[in-house]
Design a protein that fits this description.
The complex is a heterodimer of chains A (120) and B (183).
Chain A lengths: L2 H29 L3 E2 H8 L13 H10 L3 E6 L7 E6 L1 H29 L1
Antiparallel strand pairs in A: 1-3, 2-3
Chain B lengths: L9 H17 L5 H21 L5 H12 L10 H35 L5 E4 L7 E3 L7 E2 L5 H23 L5 H7 L1
The chains are: A mainly alpha (120), B mainly alpha (183).
Chain lengths: 120, 183
């Protein structure tokens, strides 16, 4: 297998993985404090694989999370610049994040165990 | 929430109106209030991006912001939905009328089994169009003879397949024309 072929496989895997932990990252960011879209995107872009995130893609996910009751949203007028819509994580959102983290940790444990066996 | 952005150059105004058009199309599935809210939020985000852009001209700052926001799908041309509706009803008529002809041909095939000497496709002298008949036509020449049933079945199968293709294209819920009608 060539490096280019492996890059293609990694890109496909990475794209699917990103979709999987996108909501978890959003909830984690909002657990740290309420934030508006631009701030959320700035945090997301620090995560591996999200450096070139199309910033508009965050809003449909936030809208869905709001409908699911994971976050609430509130417009706040600013002294300078446009008004900002701030998102706050709900109790359900926090519990969902904890459940997601638990699954993530279990996945990591299984992965570590399997990798350990393979190389023993 | 009311968010407005104004641009002074025609180029920037053109880019902005195109963005708004695409944004509206992207959010078309949302109820009106939610659509307006989503539009205001996207515009507020664009205002942030424009404010931090280091490009020199207004249009370039907007382009920079648009590129960071991400490409939005373009709405289809305005003529596509009426065209789809026209094609849809035309296909219904074609399939209905042709289907009826195929039923007649099938009926003639069955009749040929009972009356092979009479049923057939006849060509009258001076008439270029052949005629289907239940009875032997003394003044006319029978065109297909023993090949009547295979030829009719072949016509029925080929035309039926073509009609099925037309149905898939124009009337099936997952076909392109049905999708165009739903916009």
């Amino acid at each position: 297998m060539t490096d280019a072929e492996m890059d293609g496989i990694l890109e496909r895997w990475s794209s699917q993985a990103r979709k999987g932990y996108f909501e978890m990252l959003l909830l984690a960011r909002l657990k740290a404090g309420r934030a508006y879209g631009y701030q959320i995107v700035a945090t997301l872009k620090q995560a591996p694989g999200f450096e070139n995130l199309a910033e508009g893609t965050v809003y449909p996910v936030l809208t869905r999370m709001k409908k699911d009751g994971l976050v609430t949203a509130e417009w706040v007028a600013e002294d300078t610049g446009p008004p900002r819509k701030y998102y706050t994580v709900t109790d359900l959102g926090e519990r969902t994040l904890e459940a997601m983290r638990s699954i993530w940790r279990r996945m990591d444990e299984v992965l570590s165990t399997q990798t350990g066996k393979e190389f023993d | 929430m009311d968010v407005t952005l104004e641009f002074s150059t025609p180029e920037a105004r053109h880019l902005w109106s195109d963005f708004l058009r695409r944004l509206d199309w992207s959010n078309r599935h949302l109820p009106r209030a939610e659509r307006e809210d989503a539009q205001a939020e996207a515009m507020a985000h664009m205002a942030e991006l424009i404010a931090i852009s280091t490009q020199e001209t207004e249009a370039d700052r907007l382009r920079d912001a648009l590129s960071r926001f991400g490409a939005l799908p373009s709405p289809p041309p305005v003529w596509r939905a009426p065209l789809a509706i026209g094609l849809h009803y035309l296909a219904i008529m074609i399939i209905g009328a042709t289907g009826l002809v195929l039923l007649i041909l099938l009926h003639m095939v069955v009749m040929e089994l009972f009356n092979p000497a009479g049923v057939g496709l006849y060509l009258y002298p001076g008439d270029p169009v052949p005629t289907l008949s239940y009875e032997n036509q003394p003044d006319a020449e029978e065109v297909l003879g023993g090949w009547f049933i295979p030829a009719m079945l072949l016509i029925i199968l080929a035309t039926g397949a073509a009609l099925y293709g037309l149905w898939r294209l124009t009337l099936a819920p997952t076909g392109p024309v049905s999708r165009w009608m739903k916009r």
